[in-house]
Specification:
Radius of gyration: 24 Å
Strand content: under 5%
Structural class: mainly alpha
Length: about 100
């Protein structure tokens, strides 16, 4: 029996990635989420909210922003998938049936 080895190529990225799976778009969204988190923390500090109330929403916001724009295996992301589902659910669908046909 021969020992055959198959070469399976690695995933070749189609865009510049700083870290595997994280490119410029993800970093921009993370920077915007971090800025919103800092603004939330400053507003919470000004209103004398406890430390957990200052940091937890910021961490959750940054995590949610990252997972919304991180590419999935097929190249899409959760944000475009959610928009597609919303579009599908809100667009009217017509099912045109001819009820008088005899082949039903």
């Amino acid at each position: 029996m021969t020992d055959l080895r198959y070469l399976i190529p690695r995933r070749i990225p189609q865009r510049l990635e700083m870290v595997p799976g994280v490119g410029g778009e993800e970093l921009q969204v993370l920077a915007a989420a971090a800025l919103l988190s800092v603004l939330w923390a400053v507003a919470a500090w000004w209103r004398q909210v406890p430390m957990l109330g200052m940091l937890l929403p910021g961490v959750l916001l940054c995590g949610a922003a990252f997972f919304l724009v991180r590419p999935l295996a097929d190249g899409s992301n959760l944000w475009t998938l959610a928009l597609s589902i919303h579009h599908y659910l809100t667009c009217p669908r017509r099912h045109l049936y001819a009820w008088d046909r005899e082949d039903y």
